[in-house]
Every structure is written in C-alpha cells, then in structure tokens.
Amino acid sequence: MSRNFKLTLAYDGTDFYGWQVQPQHATVQGELANAIERITCERVLPQGSGRTDAGVHALAQVASFCLQSPIPPENLLVALNHTLPPAIRAISVEEATAEFHARHSAKAKSYEYRIFRAGICPPFLARYVHHHPYPLDEQPLAAAAGLVIGEHDFSSFAAVDLERGKDLEETNNTRTIYTSDWRREGDLLIYRVRGNGFLHHMVRNLVGTFLLVGKGSISPEAVPQIIANRSRSAAGPTAPAGGLFLVSVEY
Asked: Is the pTM above the cut of 0.90?
C-alpha cells in the first residue's frame, strides 16, 4: 500500500545547483531522491514546495513523496540524516493524506533576505548574507517595501524565461503579498516577505530594486510604476543568491 509522506528539511544551498534535478549537477532534490532510494530501494522524485535557485538556502523547505515501504516515519527521519550530505538535514517526517502535495497544497510562503552592513564580513557568515557595506538610507528602503503589499502582476520582478517563449499576456504572474518589511538586527539588515506564491527570482529582484531606493537612485514612489510597467527592465538588478532563505511554507 502506497503511503504519502510530508518531509520538512533545511539546507545550505551554496554547493547545490538549486532544488530541481539537473543533469551533471548536485541538487537538493537529486540528493534527497538518492538518499530515499538507498534507504528503501524505491526510486521516487520528491516534490518540493518550490524550486529554490542555485545558492539559495532553506530553513524549512517541504517535500512530499509516496513510498511502498513500511518504514515508520521516525525511522525514516533518522535514516535520512545518516544518508544525506551534511548540508541537508531532515527536520521532520510524517505521513500525510493521499491528497497532500508539497507545492499544490501550499497556501503561503515566507522568505528572508539578509544583508550584512558592517565593513568586514566574518568568513563564517559570508555564505549566508549579501555583504553590502555601502551607504543606504534605510527609511525609504522600508517605505518602498510596503508598496508591494497586495495583489499585483509582478512581471517586472520575474526572471526572463527565454525558453518559455511566451508573451506576458499568456502568463499569469499575479501574486498576493501579505507582508513586506525591513528590519535591523545588529549588523544585519533583513527583508522579510510573505505571500501566496513567488515567481522565479522575484524576491531577489525585489531586493535589488529596494537597494536602488536605499542608494537614492530611485524614489519609493517609483515602485508602483515599476509594477505597472510589467517589464523586467523597469526593475532593479537581481540580488545575489546567498542572502536568500526560504523560511516557512504554510498549509
């Protein structure tokens, strides 16, 4: 009898080519599939709540997969952490209903982007932050973040997918952002955003645009117009991957 599992895991994404299986590259999904096969002798492809990019980290990514094996969830948890590489840890494993799907069942996700503001970034922190010691006005930065809350077409903040070859009119890039704010924690400037879904590179492109506001290159009031333009060229650059964390997935 097939059993559906819900797995929550954390990982350091630095050395992985993102979540999704890629030929000739180490990925989180690929490592997880290999570990499950070694433990149960079943080849499955775990479905994640979303596809984090190369270099992006996760505090609580969720994956789902079905197994015929009778292995208890608590034994699978222990076995996974013995088998997975140290950069990936299983936090919890539980049986889920047959209808549960890590991506399709998700109601909201939260991300965090961490910027280190001091002049010298400690080497043990460098993999997990974007080091930006240059002048930033944090007040307009915070004001700009609030302007993306609500339901919008976020095409201006979506990665350009050349392979897809579709016009914007053929793609639904509308998402709802519930919270969007910056806060200081010592030398860390942290952006936190929660929404019902996110486009490819969306959080990193939002951060890149907000940094332009903090530098004074554009005003906070320009953000609504950037959204309205529905053009990637209207927004700022893509912030580096290392500062981004998938914090939680809600069901």
From this structure: yes
Whether the domain at 3-96 and the domain at 108-250 fall into the same CATH topology: yes
pLDDT of residue 45 exceeding 90? yes
Q: What's the pLDDT score for residue 170?
A: 56
* Cβ-count burial 223-247 (b if 16+ within 10 Å, e if not): beebbeebebebbbebbbbbbbbbb
φ, ψ for residue 61 (rounded to 5)?
A: -70, 150
pLDDT at 165 > cutoff 60 = no
Instruction: Tell me the C-alpha to C-alpha distance, in Å, between residue 118 and each of 14, 126, 181, 184, 237.
Output: 22, 12, 21, 12, 22
Architecture of the domain delimited by 108-250: 2-Layer Sandwich (3.30)
Task: Indicate whether 162 pLDDT > 70.
Answer: no
β-partners of residue 6 are: 64, 94
How far are the Cα atoms of 10, 78, 152, 155, 214 from residue 237, in angstroms, in the given order?
Answer: 27, 41, 20, 14, 14
- Domain ranges, ordered by start, for the chain: 3-96, 108-250
Which of 53, 137, 153, 161 is the catalytic position? 53
**C-alpha torsion sign, points 210, 154, 22, 33:** positive
**Topology, domain 3-96:** Alpha-Beta Plaits (3.30.70)
Q: Which residues pair with 132 in a beta bridge?
A: none
How far apart are the C-alpha atoms of 73 and 10, rounded to whole Å?
A: 17
Please confirm, yes or no, whether 167 is among the known catalytic residues. Answer: no
User: At which residue do the structure tokens 């997969």 appear?
Assistant: 65
Chain mean position to CA 206: 13
